[in-house]
Amino acid sequence: MIQQLNWEQLQTLVQAESIEQLSMRQLNELFHAEQQMIPFLPDSICQIDPRDGELIVYNSTRAQRPHDSATPLTPPVSVEKPCVICQGKTTGIVDVARLSQGATFINKNLFPIIYPLQNILEECRLQPLYPDPNHTGRRSYGFHFLQWTSSQHGQDWHTLSLDDGLIVLKRLAALEQKLLYESEGLMPPSETPPPRKPTHGFVSIIKNHGQLAGGSLAHGHQQIGYSNIMPRRFYNNWCFSERHQEYFSDYLLRENPAELTIRDYGEAVLIVPYFMRRPYDMILLVKDKNRQYLHELTSSELRAVTQGIQDAIRALLQIMPLLGREPAFNMTVNNGPGAGLYLEFLTHTQEIGGFEQLGLWVCQESAINAATYLREVMPPLENKIDR
Questions:
Q1: How far apart are CA 339 and CA 317, in angstroms?
Q2: Which one of 16, 60, 238, 264 has the fewest beta carbons within 10 angstroms of its own beta carbon?
Q3: Would residue 157 count as lying in a domain?
Q4: How far is it, in rounded angstroms, from Cα 194 to Cα 46?
Q5: Which of 64-73, 95-104, 188-197, 349-358 is least confident?
């Protein structure tokens, strides 16, 4: 039998035969008279991401709305396949460091999104590839690396000790430093004019965890892209600093409400941003505005950032299954011109719909509720952070 709302049932719901019959005042009154909507009203708050102007509205009750379409709430049963990394079916390794168990290593991405050119045009060496709307496109090039958090399958940031995590971060910082400072003549300047020691090209560091977040392999890893392309988020950070004459991280340290702080590590702080787009999104801010890159961090700052990364990931891996969600998130490192230095943890706790495609994000949790819950589930500090 075909499911349908028959004509007789439909007529019991009709309040006007056509929209032309209603004045705006009447339409407003009809909305306020709809009692069944009362428990599900929005927060009536709109926040703006100051980097790009994207808008976010909030309604914590939307998570309760009925769903009858296929959803990722019950992850598909998967049969664990042999790991190609554990089998050594990968590219040559360019950096390796021993951990307390196993090792962390960096190699070339077998399926790169950017690749070095044999002959680089002069214009490519001089001018970065900005996401300028007037830009007509030209050659992109560079290097695409993978950093495997551990050679042991199943080991990643959330299972490593703090000391091992620190080794992983230091090797990531060493690669970043090598690329930025030894590529003159190969890459365009990162900033013109340079405010200090000149850097060249742009280092993009990301982590995709879970299939919904773009993860293709379960063996824990980070991706590092080095190219003449300035990613859109980097460009937004730079534009923000040009408009406001301060780094975005400095702005957020000052303007984000104190009740949205999750944990303070001394040299870094983990927060829920007031413009949270998806439930449990987090930002890890390095407090010293003079830091723009990982390799510039002091030993205590590296330790604080490592602890923040581990805490954020452990919290997400605990929370998402409780929400009935497959653990999936992206970690991105915001570095370079205009950013200061901060890391984002962008969760897949909610799907993207049509409003989001228009630049209006609908978030079904409030930032204050998210911050409160994250503080509750945050694991204890492994070691006291030096202050």
A1: 27
A2: 16
A3: yes
A4: 37
A5: 64-73
112: domain CATH number?
Answer: 3.30.428.10
Q: How far apart are CA 72 and CA 94, in angstroms?
A: 37
Chain segment 286-342, per-residue pLDDT in tens? 999 889 999 999 999 999 999 999 999 999 999 999 999 999 999 999 998 889 999
* pLDDT for the residue 387: 45
Look at residue 45 and tell me if it is in a domain.
no
* 210-240: pLDDT as tens digits: 999 988 889 999 999 999 888 889 999 999 9
Range of the domain at 349: 93-377
Residue 292 covered by a domain: yes
Mean pLDDT taken over the chain: 88
- Total count of domains within the chain: 1
Ramachandran angles phi, psi of 117, nearest 5°: -90, 150
d(CA 57, CA 36): 21
Grade residue 191 by pLDDT with cuts at 50, 70 and 90: confident
